[in-house]
């Protein structure tokens, strides 16, 4: 099911994460997309549904965070590639440039991936969220060089504006072996 909107809450406590997930699911007619502990002892809850329901659930979850809230967001009209990239297990065709965005937090990376996918004709390859990354997150994308440059620039702006940019790179002609390491 393609969600019209998604909402995410990132927390500094695993225990608070379970309580917030429960609160969010009870606050609105939303679907749980992802709820899990992430590196450095944090927890994330990602939900989807109609915009009003997602907004209500994120608001309720933020109130229930009891001082453990790191970040939160709601994205209306999420680009469908973002959800696909979250669950991708097989790489898509890799015949173009490679773009990589890297962030110090999960929430901003999802927002940056959405901005990148909407900014240019690219395929999001993978969106990896804080697992075995010390709490960081990264997104990879492919397409023609100009599109990847535009998409990375759009994502970089989102991450930079939030003050959590680690790096943003475009490799115009990556060696084929580099793509094997992407997923």
Q: Which secondary-structure class do the elements indicate?
A: alpha+beta
The secondary-structure element order is EHEEHEHEHEEHEH
Q: For the record, what CATH class of the largest domain applies?
A: Alpha Beta
Largest sheet: 4 strands, antiparallel
CATH homologous superfamily heading of the largest domain: BMC (bacterial microcompartment) domain
Looking at the structure, what is the overall shape? globular
- Helix proportion: 25-40%
Q: Cα distance, first to last residue? A: 23 Å
Strand content: 25-35%
Low-confidence stretches: none
Q: Any guess at the CATH architecture of the largest domain?
A: 2-Layer Sandwich
Radius of gyration: 16 Å
Tally of individual domains: 2
Mean pLDDT: 88
Structure description:
This protein has 183 residues and is α+β, with helices and mostly antiparallel strands. The chain folds into two domains: 5-76, Alpha-Beta Plaits; 80-180, BMC (bacterial microcompartment) domain (Alpha-Beta Plaits, 2-Layer Sandwich), CATH 3.30.70.1710. It is 39% helix and 32% strand. The protein contains six helices and eight strands; from the N terminus they run E-H-E-E-H-E-H-E-H-E-E-H-E-H. The strands form two sheets. A four-stranded antiparallel β-sheet has the order 2-3-1-4, sandwiched between helices. It has a four-stranded antiparallel β-sheet with strand order 6-7-5-8. Helix 1 (14-27) runs antiparallel to helix 2 (51-63) and helix 4 runs antiparallel to helix 5. The radius of gyration is 16 Å and the shape is globular. The two termini are 23 Å apart.
């Amino acid at each position: 099911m393609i969600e019209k909107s998604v909402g995410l809450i990132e927390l500094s406590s695993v225990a608070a994460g379970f309580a917030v997930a429960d609160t969010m699911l009870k606050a609105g007619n939303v679907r749980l997309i992802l709820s899990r502990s992430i590196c450095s002892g944090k927890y994330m809850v990602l939900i989807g549904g109609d915009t009003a329901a997602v907004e209500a659930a994120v608001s309720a979850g933020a109130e229930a965070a009891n001082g453990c809230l790191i970040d939160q967001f709601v994205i209306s009209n999420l680009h469908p590639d973002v959800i696909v990239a979250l669950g991708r297990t097989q790489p898509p065709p890799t015949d173009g440039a490679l773009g990589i965005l890297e962030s110090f937090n999960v929430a901003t990376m999802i927002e940056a991936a959405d901005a990148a996918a909407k900014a240019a004709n690219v395929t999001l390859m993978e969106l990896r969220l804080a697992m075995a990354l010390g709490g960081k997150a990264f997104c990879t994308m492919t397409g023609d060089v100009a599109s990847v440059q535009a998409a990375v620039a759009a994502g970089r702006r989102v991450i930079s504006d939030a003050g959590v940019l680690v790096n943003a790179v475009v490799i115009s002609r990556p060696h084929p072996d580099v793509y094997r390491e992407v997923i």
